[in-house]
Design goal:
Helix 2 links the parallel strand 1 and strand 2. The protein starts with 6 loop residues before the first helix and ends with a strand. The protein has a twelve-stranded parallel beta sheet, covered by helices on one side. By secondary structure, the chain is an alpha/beta fold.
Length: 262
């Protein structure tokens, strides 16, 4: 059986199907979060964005509902939240410290800092970029997934990280010390210091430049790969390279701005 509907009826159906996104200026505009939730409920809980900060520290929030973006900072420290659900972006900083977070959901971008210290996350899933620093020390992270860039520093020291995934660039310091990483995969540049001490790394692969110091002490490193320059000092203490090459030979392969420690 066929049903014939008018153009206006079709338009109404499509509008219902594609819910309009609400742009909320601030939680304070509604007298607080409870007021905002009541307003959203009356509207049928549509997807919405928030053009301000959202501080939910130490609250009992378990879901962000249909929130898809926060233009300011989002603080979820000390909450029981386990998933970010439909949230796609945070313009400022995002803190998930001391939470049982298990999934970043649809999150693809954080404009400033992302704090995941001591978290149970094993993957960053759909996350592509972090504008400032990413803190993962003491977490259960195993792969950086789709992450391609970190604007400032990235600390993964003392974790069970197995893969840097699609990561190509870290703007400042990258601390991978005392991890089980055997490859830097797609990583091309580190703007600050790179610490690979006490890792099983054997080659630097595609890495081309380190702006600061490069610490390869106590590693089985055999090849500097595509490395072209190190802005600071280069530490090769207790490595096969320190036995195989002289300082002069190392400098003929890589431009080193500081001292080379054998």
């Amino acid at each position: 059986m066929k049903y014939i509907i008018t153009e206006s009826q079709y338009k109404t159906l499509m509008e219902r199907k594609e819910q309009k996104i609400l742009h909320i200026p601030s939680v304070d505009y509604f007298g607080g979060r409870e007021g905002l939730q009541q307003y959203l409920k009356k509207k049928g809980n549509p997807p919405y964005t928030l053009r301000d900060d959202l501080d939910l520290t130490d609250t009992n929030i378990k879901s962000l509902g249909n929130l898809i973006s926060v233009e300011g900072n989002l603080n979820l420290k000390g909450t029981p939240i386990k998933s970010l659900g439909n949230l796609q972006s945070v313009g400022g900083s995002l803190s998930l410290y001391d939470t049982p977070i298990k999934s970043l959901g649809d999150l693809t971008k954080v404009g400033e800092n992302l704090e995941l210290n001591l978290s149970n996350l094993t993957s960053l899933e759909n996350l592509i970029s972090v504008g400032n620093s990413l803190f993962l020390a003491g977490s259960k992270i195993k792969t950086l997934g789709n992450l391609t860039s970190v604007g400032a520093s990235l600390n993964i020291r003392n974790t069970k990280i197995e893969s840097l995934g699609n990561l190509t660039k870290v703007g400042k310091n990258l601390d991978l010390g005392n991890t089980d990483l055997t490859s830097l995969e797609n990583l091309i540049s580190v703007g600050g210091n790179l610490d690979l001490s006490r890792t099983p790394i054997k080659s630097l692969g595609n890495l081309q430049s380190v702006g600061g110091n490069l610490d390869l002490s106590t590693t089985p490193i055999e090849s500097l790969g595509n490395l072209q320059s190190v802005g600071g000092y280069l530490v090769l203490w207790q490595t096969p390279l320190s036995q195989k090459y002289t300082e002069e030979e190392i400098r003929s392969m890589v431009q080193v701005g500081g001292k080379i420690h054998f």
